[in-house]
Each structure stands twice: as structure tokens, then as C-alpha cells.
């Protein structure tokens, strides 16, 4: 069992303009599953490779269980990495593949057999142990790859997009299994993904990275409900949050699509960005009254449906409100058709407020 600490971790590739990782500070608690998430090129894989020792930092340290391992060879860091894809030896059986890391470490045959059986039982692949990778499905191969990591009982698991080559249904199934397995084993884990759904559903905490810089760390719900800035707000949530530039006009903030009362008790700049989650826009057919609607101080926006994407349980609606695009979510199929006039209602208390200049959240 171990904690993992990164301090000022920096990596500059000679050919690049900006550092791939610019002074990353991050602590992963003992037994915690931390998801490192961000768009392509933000430095996630670089961070993981530095933790594993597959690459050397230009600055900063990596500590595992309180020991500075920055200069320790990968094989002596006591971490197991699970990659995307399946780097499984084609000529070996699943049993041999899983036992291989133990053999390399000189673990005796009986002990090896016992630990492989144990891991296979945990992963429900006991019946597949005599097969070779070519005789396994994508999901089964990924379980074998996972098995190879867990037989070693390492201090930490490092996952680099392990599910990205699988189809959507299998990915959804395996992410639940994998998170449950890691929790059962209680092994400190860093899980890298660009998939915000994996981040939201799997992580005890999420660390959001952008262009080599950490934006925010916290439990998934806290990050979703209180994002540090417009980037984090825009990265988590499907469809993406509406970010609407508004300008102060007396006691209100006014934009092209809507006008909102200034939030009580906070000093906002003259130019602000209102963040409106699609699920907070309640869409109903027909035209409505302008401005505030209802006794609860709800705000109403007139719009027209541009695109409706029915997903079954819900429909994503893309609206046009006087030239401003709005994304909304509605339950089930019972939604207006493209071209139809609608009203979108919003409770101003659901709005997130950001500084228009820095993008930082202010309310
Ligand atoms: P993805 O999700 O696409 O894998 P990532 O977040 O894992 O992206 P990294 O692979 O860590 O991103 O890359 C971070 C940045 O460093 C990118 O701009 C990338 O082009 C650059 N980079 C990575 N490896 C090298 C290298 N060996 N030489 C030069 N630049 C590199």
C-alpha cells in the first residue's frame, strides 16, 4: 500500500514550444483511484510515463510510499502499468502471460500458479488460461492484461487508456468491473483517459489537465458542480455546458440570448460568462412571455429547435435563440421537432458565473 506524490513534475521535449508537463503537483492517497483527464496532448501520458519511470523528468520528483523514486529504474518502482491495446505475447497462453512478471522476479513455480489462479478468479477468466491472445476477444485480452498487472500485487497501478480500443458496450461494462476490482484490491491507482464519462464514473477524484497544467483536482461531483474555470466546466458534461457572454446593465446581466439577474451577494465584473448546464434548461413547446417567468423568478428564453438527437431515455436539443446556440436535454422522446418554436426556462440559481477575462469561476 502506498501514496503517490508528484512535486513540480516537468517535462520539456526539445522540439516542442511549451512544456508537455509544467510543474505538476499531485497527491494520490493510499488505495485511491485518481483519474487524470484532459484533451489530446494535455500531457496525461507523459505524466504516467514519468511515474512509471519510462521517461525522465526535466524537473520535479515522483515519490511512491514516501520514497523518492525519481532516479529509480522502472522495474524497481513497484508499479504495474496497463496500456491501451494489448501488448500480449501471441505465442504464450494467458496463464504464462499472467505469470511472466512473477517468473522474471524469480517467484517459485507453485507460488506463481497460486497467484495466477487467484487473479484469474478475480477477473473471471479461469476458463481461459490455456488460450493464446489470438483465441481471446478484445475484452478477454484486456482482462488478461489486467491479470498480468495484479499478480504482482504492486504498490500502484498505472492505467493508460486501457479501454480505448474496445467497443462502447464493452467499455461501459469493463469500466465498472475495473473500478470495482481496483477498489477491492485497494491498490493506489492512476487512470489516464480523455473520456470524461470514465473520469466521472470511475474516479474517487479527478485531476483535470490542460496544456501541461493542472486545472482542478477533486471528487467528480464537486468538479462538475463547482468547476474552477470555463475549461473544466466545458470539459465535463454531455452535451457541453452553455457558456454565454453577458454584460452588466444595472441589476442584470444581458446577452444576445438572455438576460439574468445579477447573483445576490457577489461582486461580479462588468463582463461575465454565464455557464448554463443543458439539463438546467427546461424546454417546452410554443412561444412564451419575455423575460422573467413564473413566481420563482425563472428566466425564459424563446428559441427554435435546430437539431434534436433522440437517445432513448433522453433527447439532446440544439436550439437557436436569436443567433445564439443553446444546448439542452429533455426526457425521453417527447420533444419538439426541428424548426419548432420553443421556450427554455432556467432557474438563475443554477447558473455558474465566470470572469469573462480569466475564465475563472466567481459564483
Ligand atoms: P493523448 O490523449 O493524445 O495521448 P496526452 O494527454 O497523453 O494525449 P502526451 O502524450 O502526454 O499527451 O503529450 C503531451 C505533449 O507532449 C503533446 O504536445 C505531445 O505532442 C508532446 N510529446 C509527447 N511525447 C513527445 C516526444 N517524445 N517528443 C516530442 N514531443 C512529445
From TrEMBL:
**Cellular component per GO, a single term:** ATP-binding cassette (ABC) transporter complex, substrate-binding subunit-containing
Output the superkingdom of the source species. Answer: Bacteria
Q: Which InterPro entries match?
A: AAA+_ATPase, ABC_transporter-like_ATP-bd, ABC_transporter-like_CS, ABC_transpr_MalK/UgpC-like, Mo/tungstate-bd_C_term_dom, NA-bd_OB-fold, P-loop_NTPase, Transp-assoc_OB_typ2
Return the Gene3D superfamilies for the record: 2.40.50.100, Nucleic acid-binding proteins (2.40.50.140), P-loop containing nucleotide triphosphate hydrolases (3.40.50.300)
Tell me where in this chain the ABC transporter domain is found: 4-236
Gene Ontology molecular function, alphabetical:
ABC-type transporter activity; ATP binding; ATP hydrolysis activity
Question: Entry's Pfam families?
Answer: ABC_tran (PF00005), TOBE_2 (PF08402)
Query: What is the name listed in the Swiss-Prot or TrEMBL entry for this protein?
Result: Sugar ABC transporter, ATP-binding protein
Which residue ranges does UniProt annotate as crossing the membrane?
A: none
Transferase is among the record's keywords = no
Q: Which UniProt keywords apply?
A: ATP-binding, Nucleotide-binding, Transport
